[in-house]
Amino acid sequence: MAYQIVAIRENETVTCERISVLIAIAKARVWTSEGWQVVITDEEGKTLEPAVFDKLLAA
Q1: pLDDT exceeds cutoff 80 at 14
Q2: Predicted TM-score (pTM) of this structure
Q3: Contact at 8 Å (CB) between 50 and 22?
Q4: Helix, strand, or coil here: 22?
Q5: Strands (E) located in 1-59
Q6: Across the beta sheet with 12-18, what order do the strands follow?
Q7: Can you tell me the distance from the alpha carbon of 51 to that of 35, in angstroms, rounded to the nearest whole number?
Q8: Half-sphere exposure (CA, 13 Å, Cβ side) for 10?
Q9: Is the Cβ–Cβ distance between 24 and 40 less than 8 Å?
Q10: pLDDT band at 58 (very low <50, low <70, confident <90, very high)
C-alpha cells in the first residue's frame, strides 16, 4: 500500500509517496517539527492527521 505525504508551509507545498507507513510517519514527523502542516493519505483516500500517528504505530 502506498502513502502520499503532503506538507504545506507558507507558499510551499511538498508531496512525496512512501510504501511503508512507518517511513511515511517518520518523514511527516520531521516535517511537522520544522513547522510544516502535514497530511498523509493512503490508497483508499483515508486521511491521516499528525494526531493519529502514534496510534497507528501502536497497532
Answers
A1: yes
A2: 0.81
A3: no
A4: helix
A5: 3-9, 12-18, 37-42, 47-48
A6: 12-18, 3-9, 37-42, 47-48
A7: 15
A8: 2
A9: yes
A10: low
